[in-house]
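=== Structure Prediction Worksheet ===
Name of assembly: unnamed complex
Input type: mixed (protein and possibly other molecules)
Chain count: two
Listed entries:
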Amino acid sequence: MDDGSARTVSVAIRVPADVRFVEEAIELMARHCFAGAEPCKRTSFRLRVLLAEALTNSILFGSGGNPSRSVRIGAEVTDECIRLQVTDDGPGFDPRDVPDPTAPAALGRPIGRGLFLIRNLADRVEFNEQGNTIWMTLPRS
Amino acid sequence: MAITKKTNAAGVAVIEIDGQLIVGNRQELKTLVQEGLDRGERKFLIDCGRTGYIDSSGLGALVTLSKKVREVNGDLRMAGLNEDLRALFELTKLDTLFHISPTAQDALAGF
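=== Predicted Assembly ===
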C-alpha cells in the first residue's frame, strides 16, 4: 500500500505462529521489499536471515509455537532503506538479558544465536518497551 | 529446495542443502544424519554449494549434529559456503568448530 508520497511503501502481513510458514513469509516480504530494485546478494541475504530470526523468535517464544496464534510482519520501504517490523502477542522479553553466544562456553550450544545475528546483520535494531515488537533497519540496495 | 543425501564409494555421506537451512527444515537434516549414524556411517559432508542462507536454528542443528557425530568418533565437515555464509560462520565463531572446505571436491579429497 502506498502512503501517497510515492517515497515510502508499506506492506504488512499476518501469519500463523507455525514454523512451516516462515520460508513462505520471508519470500513474500522479500518480493515486496525488493520490488523494482535488484538488491545486492549481501542485502538479500541479510533481509532473509533477519526475518527468519525475528519470525522464529516470535513463533517459538512469543507465541509458544501455537498455530492458532499469529505473528504480524511489516516493512516500510524507501529507495534507501527497509525497516522491518515483527510483532507477536506474547509477553515479550528483555533484549538486554541475552548472553554472548560466541563466548567459549557457549560455542557448543545449539541455541542462543538469533538475537546476536540480528544485532550484527541489521544497521539498527529497536524494541518496544514490552519486548514483543522488533524493528530492524537495513539498506535497500 | 531440498535436502538430499548420497553416500559415495568411500563411505562419505554427502548431504546437499539446496535452498536454505532454517527452523522449518532443520529436522530433515537431523533425520538424515541420524539415519546414517544408525546405519553405521561415520563420515558426513554437508555441501552448502547450493545453499542460500542459514538461520540460527540451522546453525544450531549443525552444532548438535557435529557433536553427535564426534561422540561416535565420526567426522562431520562443511563445504561450499558462499561469501555470506562464510561470514556468518566467522561472526558466530563456528568456523572454529567445523572443518570447512571451499568446495565439496576439496572436502572429499581430504577425508
